[in-house]
Automatic annotation (TrEMBL):
CDD domains: NMNAT (cd02165). The lineage of its organism: Bacteria, Thermotogati, Thermotogota, Thermotogae, Mesoaciditogales. One of its GO terms (molecular function) is nicotinate-nucleotide adenylyltransferase activity. It holds the Pfam family CTP_transf_like. The gene is nadD. It catalyses: nicotinate beta-D-ribonucleotide + ATP + H(+) = deamido-NAD(+) + diphosphate. This is Probable nicotinate-nucleotide adenylyltransferase.
Amino acid sequence: MIGIYGGTFDPIHNGHIIMATSIVELSHLDKIMIMPTRTPPHKQGMISADFERRLRWSQIAFENVDKVEISDFEGKKDVSYTIDTVLHFEKIYGKVAYIMGEDSFTNIEKWYKYAELIERVELYIYPRYCDRHLTDDLMNRMKKSSERIHFLSSLPIIQISSTSIRERARLGLSLKGYVPDKLEKEIFDFYKYTPM
């Protein structure tokens, strides 16, 4: 089974790399596909870097990482719906898994056709908070799907976010340790000099 790890990756950072490599180690997935989105419906007009730049950054960040591939599939359409991506890759690989952060999971009921998505995939949720109360009510509403929802509680809680990286760059603060070394200067320069 493959896992799809979608997001804007605006920019890609070391937290994304730790999460992807940890999930490969902990799960039975054959590989993870990093899936930068062109324009998610809930973030239209909110993405700083163009798709091609974010795709290239992802390719550089994950080069030589075992069992991780980068896909440009969601860059081929203007607006990306996760359910459409899942249906496409099901035709190729059969059942697929979807990987998301706990912060995204808390908003999943706002996603397009979220109920169908949850019925179709194995969901791997990596922790973003120290406290599970934020997802308890949601899990109670999804009891019939709970066997397909896997909280990866043994993963480290990583509080690096793309938002904080963009803000640090705009303030002229170092990105050392936040993003891959080979992308540090380029990401810093891009966000420092790109208007919000």
